[in-house]
Amino acid sequence: MVTVPVSTLPLASRFRPRTALVASADRxxxxxxxxxxxxxxxxxxxxxxxxxxxxxAEAAPPEAVIVDSWLPDLDLAExxxxxxxxxxxxxxxxxxxxxAQESPRGPYRQELLYALRRSQxxxxxxxxxxxxxxxxxxxxxxxxxxxxxxxxxDAAAPLAFPPHSDPSAAIPFLPEAPRTNxxxxxLQTSGVEPACCERLPELIGNASCMLxxxxxxxxxxxxxxxxxxxGPTGSGKELVAEALHRLSARSRKPFVAINCAAIxxxxxxxxxxxxxxxxxxxxxxxxxGRIEAADGGTLFLDEIGEMPLALQAKLLRFVECGELQxxxxxxxxxxxxxxxxxxxxxxxxxxxxxxxxxxxYYRLAVFLIRTPSLADHAEDLxxxxxxxxxxxxxxxxxxxxxxxxxxKLMAHDWPGNVRELEHVLERGAILAGEEAVVTAREIxxxxxxx
Length: 450
Fold this sequence. Notes:
Layout: E1 18-23, H1 27-39, E2 42-47, H2 50-59, E3 64-67, H3 76-86, E4 91-94, H4 109-120, E5 179-180, E6 186-187, H5 208-220, E7 227-230, H6 237-246, E8 255-259, H7 265-273, H8 290-293, E9 298-302, H9 309-321, E10 323-324, E11 333-334, E12 338-343, H10 347-353, H11 358-364, E13 367-370, H12 381-392, E14 400-401, H13 403-410, H14 417-431, E15 437-438
Parallel strand pairs: 1-2, 1-3, 3-4, 7-12, 7-13, 8-9, 9-12, 14-15
Antiparallel strand pairs: 5-6, 10-11
Helix pairs in contact: 1-4, 9-11, 12-14
């Protein structure tokens, strides 16, 4: 094992713990990074925003500050510039591993980069898809500040290390300290950081795959990053989109949803982009499109895989420049929306086969969230049953299932996923009539009861 002589370290560092300040609105990110840095024998302080981080640094300047790539209260670029001026000796990094301009290289820079890599190792972004669609990775220039917490579509690695460093050899002289439980017993640690244990209220279920969905929503919601939600029909993709909007800075602005498969191809363009009076037969007056109606908020494009190729080209133009042109109009309109798309198809395969534009896919699939089928988290069935029965109890007396009915539900394979479960329970409650208990006889999966 390679060691660093003690004499090469700063004198003050030999006698006092080194401290780091982590500034992020995302509690799960702060927890993962704090856990890793603590294992590397750092003392870590946390801040939920830029103002709190500034106050903490004034009280006791740390050796290093790691700032998330989005701050809820301050502009990131201005914060970095001002912080650099007031605290010139602090090693200042963003969550992407980029280093603020003219930031002094601290003696523990490699430890900080290693901690960032570890804290993001468990995150699989949208570029982890079909190999033929994945572009060659390239290292980001670590001398400049990156505005995003994840690589662009041209960078496949979740963390960029300086060109002269070897990420696999980071911190060879300081192994991670073992963690202990309150009783003092050593806990076995793995190379993957645990997922955030807090699930969103919209997403019912405590299975690991559901907690991962909640974790990913919390990570990306505060940012402007486009999100693609993939999952089988009835698995709750729109609920995920609504949660992304609710947790974003755009929550006070409109959330506009459109199902690309539910509108005829001839009308979909006008529905999305709007039209002027007389633009086509029947257009007796002009109309604002769904995209423009979502200005300042979130546009949810459900079943994006069903959008015709010709219309995909026009949508790509809007995604690239933020400008749209109403049908029948020569003027362009600037619109600010955050795009969230969803599909039950394997959109990467569609892009490979030519059924979906690959350039539009790259624009939409910056961050990927997959909603699991109900069969993948069948252990959550009792929680979902309680949730739906309680919700139906707002308009009628609350019903419950007898053991036979629950056993019948547990034996079903649920091809229609959570939506099918909701319908089956509603049908069972109706068939039970005035009875307070739904029995196995009332559990109908679509076959007529004699």
